[in-house]
Write a structure and sequence with these properties.
By secondary structure, this protein is of the alpha+beta class. It contains 16 helices and ten strands. The chain has helices at residues 6-10, 15-26, 71-111, 117-131, 170-178, 230-272, 281-296, 300-312, 322-325, 333-340, 342-350, 360-365, 386-401, 412-421, 429-437, 447-454; strands at residues 30-34, 39-42, 50-56, 59-66, 136-143, 148-156, 164-165, 182-184, 202-210, 213-222.
Length: 455
Amino acid sequence: MAPVSLSKLIKKRALMPMLCRLVSDLETSIIIEDVEGQLLMATDGAERLTQYSVTVAGEAIGRVYGSEKVAVIATLLSGMAESEVEKRALVSETLNKYKEITLLYEMVEKVSSCLDTKEVARLVIEEAERVIRLTSVSVFLLNKDTDVLELIAGCGQGQEVATTVERGVGIAGSVWASGRAEIVNDVENDPRFVSGEVKISSMMCAPLKAKDAVVGIIKIGSEQSVVYTAEDLKLFTTLASLAAVSIENASLYEQLKDAFYTTVYTLAETIEKRDPYTGNHTKRVMEYSLAIGRTLGLPEEEMTRLQLGAVLHDIGKIGVRDNVLLKQSALTDEEFEQIKMHAVYGEEIISGIAQLKSAVPGVKQHHEKHNGRGYPLGLKGDEIDITARIIAVADSFDAMTSNRPYRNGLSLDDAFEELRKFSGSQFDPEIVDAFFASDVMDAFFTANSRQKILL
């Protein structure tokens, strides 16, 4: 903190009249100078008889000259200067507290509804850039399988060269091992510095702790020499603490989400086990569908609906009798009507599960046709949910290219021709075009032959 200026202190509105009154009461004269000798006050007849220092924390900020009587004025000015320092310190502390509280409030508001670890890391980086002097930020999370910290997000100049941190290795590894945040204002001369670890001059590193265990670290740094202070570290560790809780919550959600998807996949695979000739059909339909969705640029929420719908599109077949579902010859009209009910059964099965409701349109409508001649509702064109239109193409393509007891699968060329033939009648033309333009085609052809297909 900058020293108190005696000149500014004396210029305060109430002080000068008080000094004049005090000099008059003491029946003396006085000369007051700042530490550089600049005259701040002098009364008539004043002489430099005796010098008394005006000090703050042992440091002189000015001098008072006069008789022994003016010693009380030097003491008064020193006391007022000390009070000014304390006032500044209190203001600074209050501002820092306000800054810290504001940071906490804004961070809580931003990350409270965020359930993705990488998005939480991005928000933390954004806040760090806003409130701390830095040129780079890096967030590492623990990979429990390998027991190393892996870089999940970072930005700025002086960015990480290494993408992993080992326990006890380098400055970051040391912070991981100790679990204590640190300031390092001369990175390259720190004995723990690992050549190539960072391209920064000054840094702060803090552990991300969840339930007293270090689950990651966050580092900030500056290419220019910056003297990070204890106040900077306090603000930084506050940010790290909040980030750790949010990341842990997001991680737990992701684990639950993975468990949920695993359960859904297992349920779908259970249905497939009833029909050995459709092995991995669900997986292929999901992969084709997601490839089409990526090509169309569907937003994340729609991609989630698409994934669930593709995985569960045949779940309703659990309600179809085995003698119909597993029949090895052509179906009668009555049997086909029973098969068609699987779309309705699918809706009935999953509509009661809140987490699966978004998949209902894909499950119920994936046998609707672009021209309105599909089932079960006879929807057409854009009346059909986008996920159902995508699943229809993916499902039909896989069905055409798969062997059945009563027929062999079509060749790729013939299956492609069928998609083109029925584009605009059975299938949405935009979806068919997206299928041919999708990255899934790379699994079928080399770049040259794929180009011929697109042409």
